[in-house]
Amino acid sequence: MMNVKQLEQILTIYGADMARWPEESRGPARALLTESQDARNLYKQAESLDRALNAFTPPPLPTGLAVRVANESLMRARSTKKKSGFSLPKFSFVSKGFWMPAGGLVAVTAAVVLMFLSPHNAVQTGDAPDVTTFIQTLGQQASAEEQELQETDAVIAMLDNAAQTPPQQVNPDGNATSDEMMKTLFDDGNGQDDDSWLQKL
Amino acid sequence: MLNAGAAERTREETAGGSDEELVARIATGDERAFRDFAERYTGLIFSVAWRMSQSRAAAEDIVQETLLRLWQKAGDYDAKRGASVKTWLCRIATNLCIDEKRKGGREYGGELPETADPSEGAQKTMETKQTGEIVGRVLQDLPERQRSALILFHYEGMSVKEIAEVLQTTPKGAERLLDRSRQALRRELEGYKGVL
């Protein structure tokens, strides 16, 4: 048995049209409406709300709207696709099953053709002398570099020998004294006294 | 009151195949299927969008945007998930309406239809028009999800389960939204003389 409160809840959710109510509530609701004035009042209120809602009607559908919006939607879809730039072709492997084996065959054929046409395949015979010449050139360059190294070693050895001769008298800062320098400059090499050069003047 | 487009849709569904078949064909880029689908569902989307926005221009934009999304995302539709094409489409349209209103880019509401049926008599027609305008204003003030639930249930004849799918909630959640929306609507409309 349904009570007034339960009927009120059904009316606020579903409205007054019993066809829209849950099926199991229709029978008990009818029974309640026959015996309760409060229930009938609530039902009338729900009917008046439904009537008010029914007064809110949209304008008639604009003529040709379906065709127009379909065309415009398709146009927009195409322009969006164009703006997005490159797009992969759509192959359906289900409805167009020949694409997969055909694509594979084209790829394999292209690979074989490229293999035969590739310039790397021409190296084998005609280019052999060029390779020999190139190796010889490399050998000559290596010999030249070896010679340069030997000459450098010789120069270093000479410098080492020079470094082994007795050092000159030096002042505390490592330079030859001015007396020694003068003697070196004016010594005639015969071991005469230092004052002999004055006599020559 | 069910949308007049509902009967029309049922009639149209005999041509062009089921919704699921059409969406599957659209996913392969079939423009003919897309046009059939647009013919079938433009009325529904326009009706929902207009009641959500109360603007003809906004409703037309929503129809176009919804169909564009359908064209782009048809491949994502999976019937096995349980949602019908209709609820999937309504979800797209409703979300677009809510997003558009949140963005605040367009003035919503206030643009109501001219008249119902002049043969009913001028007085009656005027009363109906005024009631419709008031209901429209009050609906605009409802929270978006409550408004969506009420529109989908009352005008588009959707079940609670379908509304739950559209609004991505549970059936109980959808019932709560309907309950609150009707209560709020009644409360507001009681302030207008002669509406209820």
> What's the gyration radius of chain B in Å?
18 Å
Q: Strand pairing plus helix content of chain A: what structural class?
A: mainly alpha
User: Termini of chain B, distance in Å?
Assistant: 17 Å
Please give the count of helices of chain B.
Answer: 9
> What is the percentage of strand-forming residues of chain A?
under 5%
Low-confidence stretches of chain B: none
Q: Report the count of strand segments of chain B.
A: 0
| Topology pattern of chain B, helix = H, strand = E | HHHHHHHHH
The string of secondary-structure elements of chain A, in order, is HHHHHHHH
Please tell me how large the radius of gyration of chain A is. 57 Å
Shape of chain A: elongated
Explained architecture:
The complex is a heterodimer of chains A (201) and B (196). Chain A is mainly alpha-helical and 201 residues long. Chain A is built from eight helices and no strands. Chain A has helices at residues 4-14, 23-35, 37-54, 65-83, 99-117, 128-163, 178-186, 196-200. Chain B is mainly alpha-helical. Chain B is built from nine helices and no strands. Chain B has helices at 4-12, 19-27, 31-53, 56-73, 85-103, 122-140, 144-155, 160-166, 171-189. The A-B interface holds A 9, 12-15, 20, 45, 48-50, 52-62, 65-67, 69-70, 72-74, 76-77, 90, 92, 95 and B 1, 5, 28-29, 31, 34-35, 38-39, 42-43, 46-47, 50-51, 56, 59-60, 63-64, 67-68, 71-72, 113-114, 116, 128-129, 131-132, 134-136, 139, 150, 153-155, 160, 175, 178-179, 182-183, 185-186, 189, 195-196.
Task: Summarize this structure as a short list of keywords or feature phrases.
heterodimer, A: 201 residues, mainly alpha, disordered C terminus, B: 196 residues, 9 helices
Quick summary of this structure?
The complex is a heterodimer of chains A (about 200) and B (about 200). Chain A is mainly alpha-helical and about 200 residues long. Helices cover about 65% and strands about 0% of the residues of chain A.
